[in-house]
Amino acid sequence: MNKYPNGHWLGILTDIEIALPQLLRQRDSWxxxxxxxxxxxxERLWMQYGNxxxxxxxxxxxxxxxxxxxxxxxxxxxxxVNGVYRMDVGYGEGSVPPPVMATILLPAGSTxxxxxxxxWHSVSPxxxxxxxxxxxxxxxxxxxxxxxxxxxTLTDAEREHLFEIFSSxxxx
Length: 172
Prior knowledge:
The chain has two helices and ten strands. It is an alpha+beta fold. The chain has a single domain, classed as Jelly Rolls (Sandwich). The strands form two sheets. The protein has a six-stranded antiparallel β-sheet, with helices on one face. The longest helix has 17 residues, at 8-24. The chain is globular and about 40 Å long. The relative contact order is 0.26.
């Protein structure tokens, strides 16, 4: 019997969130990257956890009007931990952005999954940075935007800030 008959990735996210208090104490196990090749800028801590990758994000408010509308190269589920973001959603094959078919405002506590390779979205924090947890699976054979630049790792201060935010939300 499938443990997650509906909302498969949301179930995986919930299970991983149960483990997060302990995982957040293993600070040397987390990698980092500062994603700034498109808007919005994202500070990311990430670690491999079995067959999944866990990512903790600080998503900055875009300085331009448009956020990157993109498909994910892997199945995923997200939780908004702190803040609010606007998400545009679309659906289409290939690398040409499809029309936006829905716009949603997602406050803290919201969850969603992207479980189809042809799902597209963009996220834009509304008034201040938004913090999210994302769990991803094995990559699909799917084109998605990539940076041609080398992305830097987070500074010690940026890493510490993310650990503080997520540890305050995921405490035992």
